[in-house]
Amino acid sequence: MTLLDGKSLADTIEKQLKTQIDSLKGNGVVPTLAVILVGKDPASCAYVNMKIKACERTGVACVAKKLPEDITQIDLLQIIKDLNADPQIDGILVQLPLPAHIETKSILEAIDPCKDVDGFHPFNAGRIFAGIEAFAPATPMGVMSLLEYYDISLKGKNVAIIGASNIVGKPLASLMLNAGATISICHILTKDIGFFTKNADIICVGVGKPGLIRADMVANGCVVIDIGINRLENGQLVGDVDFDAVSKKASFITPVPGGVGPMTIVSLLQNTLLAARKQKIEKIQKY
Description:
Distance between the termini: 53 Å
Structural class: alpha/beta
Helix content: 40-55%
CATH architecture of the largest domain: 3-Layer(aba) Sandwich
Strand order of the largest sheet: 1-11-8-7-5-6
CATH superfamily of the largest domain: NAD(P)-binding Rossmann-like Domain
Low-confidence stretches: none
Mean pLDDT: 95
CATH class of the largest domain: Alpha Beta
Largest sheet: 6 strands, parallel
Order of helices and strands: EHEHEHEHHHEHEHEEEEHEH
Shape: globular
Strand content: 15-25%
């Protein structure tokens, strides 16, 4: 069994990004990410802080907008409109989930697709689905990078994806389908998840349920990508896979923490750098 070490790979990519960003800065270009946090949800605050620190490590300028829980949808839309119009801002990220009184779809659709470094805008989602270059959501992008680094081919492989969210499951399915895999997507209404996982060469799971994938649900030699993250009552962080048992059968498996999580953050930075290149360099070169 080989651990898919996302932490180590993310550190390597960060160093590469820093070199590229330092070079851009020498030419007067500073990649800049705007991060919007609404309210004080502890998990959201922790994720935003990790993203800000990653920006600091790589040299990405970060504009953090921490907004009150009761901000109106109209006011939030105006902030996004202003960021869309700001030529210094290359990427815009709205930390999810948003409070119940705000319609998430409307907020995500309001972001300029050219600055949608989270890859959630329908424009980018559609391009990913069609196999056209676009900003991919950071977690699926991180999974793909991890598989590529460890030379795990998707061509002709049976893949079971557990979780059908717009953020992870659906875009990951599109990326893997485009890479030549045969995809099964399981969700809350799927009657027998084990049927799909037992016949899968690669299993990806991210639903937020500890121990969901057991050893009797996987085939020998399978690749297991655990995207879930859960905090147990004793404070321990675990994924959605029974790691101790499943790792005895898997050929490759991601740890939690230290697997997909770090790759998600570094993928966001890669998208931000790409956005900066497109908006601040390619635009200039056209004129």
